[in-house]
Each structure stands twice: as structure tokens, then as C-alpha cells.
Amino acid sequence: MTKRKIFLLSLIAVLAVTYFFQLVFASRGKITEVKVKGEITKIEIINSKGKLNLSKNEDNWLINDNLPAKTELTKTLCSTLSSVKVIDSVNKKPTEADFEKYGLTSAITVEGYSADSKKIVKLTIGKTSTTGNQTYIQLNDSKEILLVSSNLNEYFSVSEKELLDMTLYTTTASDIYKIAVTYSPSGTFTAEKAGEMADFKWNVTAADNNADTSSFNSAKFQNWVNSITELTASKWLTDFNVSDSQLDDSRYYSITIYAAEKEIKVDLYQLKADLGSEKLCICSENEYLCEITAEDVHRLVTELSNFLD
Questions:
Q1: What is the pLDDT of residues 95-134, one digit of tens each?
Q2: Are 225 and 176 in contact (CB under 8 A)?
Q3: Which of 89, 190, 232, 287 lies at 20 to 30 Å from 226 by C-alpha?
Q4: Rounded distance, CA 93 to CA 140, Å?
Q5: Per-residue pLDDT, 250
Q6: What pTM value is reported for the model?
Q7: How distant is the alpha carbon of residue 262 from its chain centre?
Q8: Rounded Cα–Cα distance for residues 247 and 251 (Å)
Q9: Which of 184, 163, 156 minimizes the C-alpha distance to 255?
Q10: How far apart are the C-alpha atoms of 182 and 266, rounded to whole Å?
Q11: What's the pLDDT tens digit per position in 123-151?
Q12: Percent of the chain at pLDDT above 90?
């Protein structure tokens, strides 16, 4: 056998071995996507910060059935739970030592349920990999330890406080075209925009108490409009029944903001049991009783005389 033939045969052998290992590693590196069957409408999370129950209410999500959750963040959690990308099977028959090694003895557990309360997915989330971009998990009722893409701890270590949506409403000044105010000490008035968008003015279109509106200052009113384009709750009041009779005659201020296709109504209340408080609020965008800060009360509450020169 010539040296040339020996060299060529050796080269073929090296290439064959290389090809074999390429096939092995390529198959191990192939990501398998595991999708849930059906729509997740309820999520239960147990982590070091406590237990969270999330439920879908039409297009929104609620925490413990009575508090609004941040929509985009909850959608991300739901999407992550609905589709798990498996990189590799780490151990098909793990021991207790393996569970400890991969952080599965004190793990985060996440369960997803369908509309008929059927459990359709469960994740037991352990440690992240050394890169921090992958996570060791168990899927559903299997003991097998899997390596999946993404840092699932980053998503599902979330707390109730982080998930709570404190937004009452948000809009833009340019979208607001009409505002109606009812203030028990000083009556009611309504103001509307008139004219072209580039050169509009605010006019009072309705007022009681025989108010003289000839000196109404459109620029002052616009400055106030600019200041009330958003409102947040400082605290949700879950232990108070919104239909409670204490609220019946305690409303002292109402404002309805007409913005684009929205009609946002905010009511402020003065409870008899707490005469020093002016912070109770209900907004039509979510209709949960809450508190707002004194600063926001002073920013929102106004009367017609404030805009008369």
C-alpha cells in the first residue's frame, strides 16, 4: 500500500469520526418545543415570596380574583408557561441527590389550568445553568430532569406587589375633547374643545349656579387637562364592599373625561367613618375601590372658578 493510499484512508477515517460526533452533538443541541393543549386561563405560582393565583377575566388578568394584574407581564408569564423549549434531557432517572444538585428540592412550582379548571401544565423550576440563560426543570408529573431555554426563575420569582397594576386610567391630552365635573360644594360644569386641532379653544358648554363664563380662560383649563392625563391607585381596598351603603351619599366629586373613544369616570368619596379622608376612589376603567394620594386628589379636584379671570 502506497503512502498516498495510507494518507487518504487515514483522512477518510478522521472525517468519518468527525462527522459522527457532529451528528451526536447536533442531535443533542436540537431544541424541542413543548406546547400546552388548550388556553391557559388560570395560573398558580408558589415561590419564595408566597403563593400567587392569577385568573383571566375576558382580556384582563386578576390576582386572587379581585385585584388587577399588569397585563403585559402576565401575558409574558402565560406565554412562557404555554411553550417550553427543551434543549436536553439531563437525567431520566434522577435520585434525591440529583434533585438537590439541580435545585429541584426547594423549587418554584407553576401550574396552568384551562377554563374548565383542568390542569394542563406544571413546571417545577430549579436552578439556572452556568450561563444563566437556561433552566433545569421537571415537566408535568415526570421525574425526568430537563434543561430548557430561558431563565425561568427570572420570570416566576415574581411577587404580588410586582404583578399588581396600580393604573386607574391613562390617556393623552390631545385625545381629550370634553370634561364634565360635579363638585358638591360648587356645582357642575362641562367644557368642550371647539375649533381646529391646531387652533382649538375650550368653551364652557354647561354650568349651574348662574355662573358667568364670559371670562373663561382656555389656556388655564388646558394646563389643568395636561395634569390629569393619568391616575394611579396608592392602595387597593379588597376588604371593602363597593356596594356598601356607606358609599351611597359620600361621593363629593365626579369627573368624566371624554378621550377619543373612551369615557373615563372617576368618583371620589368621603366616608362618614373617616371624615379626615379624601382619598377613596372608584374609576370606571376597572371599578375597584382604592385610595389615591392627597397630591392626586388636589391635582384632580377643581371647580369652574379656577378658570375664570
A1: 999 999 999 998 999 999 999 999 999 999 999 998 889 9
A2: yes
A3: 287
A4: 15
A5: 81
A6: 0.75
A7: 20
A8: 7
A9: 184
A10: 11
A11: 999 999 988 899 999 999 899 999 999 99
A12: 68
Cα 304 from Cα 179, distance rounded (Å): 12
Place of cell 362641562: 190
- CA 121, CA 140: separation in Å to the nearest integer? 6
Within 10 angstroms of residue 50's Cβ, the number of other Cβ atoms is 9
**Is the pLDDT reported for residue 240 higher than 70?**
no
Q: Using one digit for the tens of pLDDT, what is the confidence trace for 81-94?
A: 999 999 999 999 99
Q: Please check the confidence at residue 72 and state whether its pLDDT lies above 80.
A: yes
Nearest Cα residue to 181 out of 267, 290, 248, 280 = 267
C-alpha cell at 109: 412550582
For residue 200, give Cα distances in angstroms to 76, 139, 193.
Answer: 41, 60, 6
Q: Give the count of beta carbons closer than 10 Å to the beta carbon of residue 116.
A: 8
Q: State the cell numbers at 203.
A: 368653551
Amino acid code (one letter) for 273: A
Terminal C-alpha separation, the chain: 110
* 3-state secondary structure string across 7-33: HHHHHHHHHHHHHHHHHHHHHHCCCEE
* E strand or H helix that includes residue 155: helix 152-156
As a whole number of angstroms, the distance between CA 220 and CA 55 comes to 44
Q: DSSP strand E in 92-223: where?
A: 108-113, 119-128, 134-139, 145-149, 167-170, 176-183, 187-194, 201-207
The neighbouring-strand residues paired with 164 are 69
Kind plus residue range of the DSSP H or E element containing 168: strand 167-170
